[in-house]
Specification:
This protein is an alpha/beta fold and 284 residues long. It is 36% helix and 19% strand. The protein has ten helices and ten strands.
């Protein structure tokens, strides 16, 4: 299926978590002078108009970047994320919102590379329009589940891969686990970030996904944030990032960031613990 268009969901609470964690990862990895490569299995359109028809139809960004933007000066560790948005909006605000490829492109250095995969014809057209002028960027019109392992190991052999499918079909969860296993076998030293949704009780597959990842990876760091209580319906109340080979002591940075992100994004009336950072390990 190729019906998913991220423009309807750009800038929502899940994007904020994903992009905040990505920005921290890139900042940490670029602290060393050696060049690196960023790979994105489901790159999307690269750049989104939050005043456009798709974003206006759902209004999801209002409870994501819309909540966070006024508080940006209270989150200095996400300066790179906010600076990237500001650079796209010289007149102020956040109407032009970067997808993961555009965000990372702005955070990387001249000697770094980006390898981006996208299968949806309309999305890859937008991706090329937004990023094709950058010689560091290499765009592949292909299925990221197949393409990511096929393009590994990359050169340079140091870097980060984002696996971020839309999960529009149930098989995406198993495909993520299969893709990671195949990718990790070819590039065991790479850093991997896997985004996943937290849905209503009747539809949530996050635990199944994590168990699938641990079938091939012995240890995974997870960071989850919920903005409303979990109910039985389909709605996405939160999301998570599963990290393989994260930088040393990265969990400490996440434990500092996530409670403040949760405080900024959580809807009124939501109580209890709405974030967690924890290691998950495979059982014997």
């Amino acid at each position: 299926m190729l019906s998913y268009l991220h423009g309807f969901h750009a800038g929502n609470h899940a994007d904020v978590l994903k992009h905040g964690v990505l920005a921290l990862l890139i900042e940490t990895l670029t602290a060393k002078p050696k060049p690196l490569v960023y790979l994105d299995s489901h790159a999307g359109a690269g750049l989104y108009d939050l005043d456009g028809e798709q974003a206006a139809k759902t209004g999801e960004f209002a409870n994501g970047i819309g909540h966070l933007w006024p508080m940006r000066h209270d989150l200095p560790e996400l300066a790179g994320y906010f600076d990237s948005i500001a650079a796209l909006n010289p007149d102020g605000g956040y109407v032009r919102y970067p997808g993961s490829p555009e965000l990372v492109r702005r955070l990387l250095r001249p000697d770094d590379r980006l390898i981006l995969m996208e299968l949806h014809k309309a999305e890859v057209h937008g991706l090329r329009a937004a990023l094709d002028g950058d010689s560091r960027v290499h765009i592949h019109h292909r299925d990221g589940f197949e393409g990511l392992p096929a393009l590994l190991p990359p050169k340079p052999a140091r870097g980060l891969a984002l696996i971020d499918p839309p999960y529009e079909v149930k098989t995406d969860y198993a495909e993520v686990a299969r893709c990671l296993a195949a990718a990790h076998a070819r590039w065991p030293t790479g850093v991997y970030a896997i985004w996943y949704p937290r849905l209503g009780l009747d539809r949530d597959q996050s635990e199944t996904l994590l168990r699938g990842l641990l079938d091939s990876i012995p240890r995974v760091l997870i960071a989850e944030l919920s903005v409303s209580p979990q109910t039985r319906d389909f709605g996405m109340h939160g999301s998570g990032m599963a990290l393989v080979n994260p930088p040393w002591r990265f969990e400490e940075r996440l434990k500092t960031l996530l409670p403040r992100l949760a405080a900024a994004l959580t809807l009124e009336g939501t109580g209890g613990d709405n974030w967690r950072v924890a290691w998950r390990e495979a059982t014997a």
